[in-house]
Amino acid sequence: MNENAPATFQLPEQMSTLAPQVDWIYYFIFWLSVVMFVGIVSAMVFFAWKYRERPGHKAEPTGHNMTLEIGWTIAPVFVLVFMFHKGFEGYLNLSVAPANSMIVKVNAKQWAWEFVYPNGGSSDELHVPVHQPIKLVMDSADVIHSFYVPALRVKRDVVPGMFSMVWFEATHVGHDDIFCAEYCGGRSTGPGGTELPYAPSDDPLHPYIAGQATGHWSMHSMLYVESKEDFDKFLKSIGDPCDAYVNAGKDCPLKVAADQGAKLAQSKGCVACHTTTGARLVGPSWKGIFGKQESTDKGGVSVDEAYIKESILDPNAKIVTGYQGVMPTFRGQISDAELDEITAYIKSLKD
Ligand code: CUA
């Protein structure tokens, strides 16, 4: 069922759960502006006619009307506070992703989008399942870009050196454009400073020759909202991040690191307290632990790279509920590279 509105003259189709709220405040401000404009211009025209210069009439100053002054100051304040409240509420809703969101990493660069899915596969077009909250964790490799999908009513800047986040839940199967909404440069010269041709092509959809002159305007991609089955098929097709290496007859760096981590787990004695089978020893089993939400004596944590590293270097920082803080620190006994390898190993121990 599609409970959302189709495209109108002013606004594109609604495709997300947030869209009706955004459109409501848009139309509220639009119609308020129409009413104010018509009212003010009508009064202006009427008074201009009523008090026009005529023979036998002398202009009289009207003086000050305190009640009127206060009235037309206070009344708009209520309207403005209401608009701010509605706008801020929408901003918060857009910023706080539900706990069951699927995380998709977004990498922006001059001039392309890359989307990385939970299974490690990636694509240059965004595929998502319908009726599933999607949290985008976005980062830029160079300059400021802005992720924008009109039908979702989602737009957020992607800034180098930090992660920005935004979420959405698509309400029906379909597709829409992904634009970059921040001017992020362009290139019109090639190697050696040669002028690249902006030659018109015969294809009306691609009026300039692609891959020669590129820039902000070419940073376009597509969003595909799919059924759960189609999305699963898509995920399978982009497969394991190791596939590309294996197909090229090379060793997958992730696999190499994980194998190295498995050896370290033995030599450093991790396995004395942590099993990889799901069974409980002194510490939590590593099986399927990566990506899990755990409660600790310092509150909830999500088991990610940062938490694993912290737990190795500073084991008592956040102790998982139900366990004793008896693990010694490995600070000074383990290199950064070894930390990465142990983390890669833990990541590979899926449920
Ligand atoms: Cu990226 Cu404009």
Describe the structure.
A hairpin with a 2-residue loop joins strand 1 and strand 2 (112-116). Helix 1 packs antiparallel against helix 2 (66-95). The longest helix has 32 residues, at 19-50. This protein is 33% helix and 19% strand. The strands form 4 sheets. The chain has a 5-stranded mixed β-sheet, with no helix packed on it. Strands 4-12-9-6-7 form a 5-stranded mixed β-sheet. The protein has a two-stranded antiparallel ribbon with strand order 10-11. Among the domains are: 102-237, Cupredoxins -  blue copper proteins (Immunoglobulin-like, Sandwich); 248-348, Cytochrome c-like domain (Cytochrome Bc1 Complex, Chain D, domain 2, Orthogonal Bundle). It has helices at residues 19-50, 66-95, 228-238, 243-247, 253-267, 305-313, 336-348, and strands at 102-109, 112-116, 122-123, 126-129, 133-140, 145-149, 154-158, 164-169, 174-180, 186-187, 214-215, 221-226, 293-296, 299-302. The model has no long low-confidence stretch (mean pLDDT 86). It is an alpha+beta fold. The structure holds dinuclear copper ion. Dinuclear copper ion (CUA) binds next to loops.
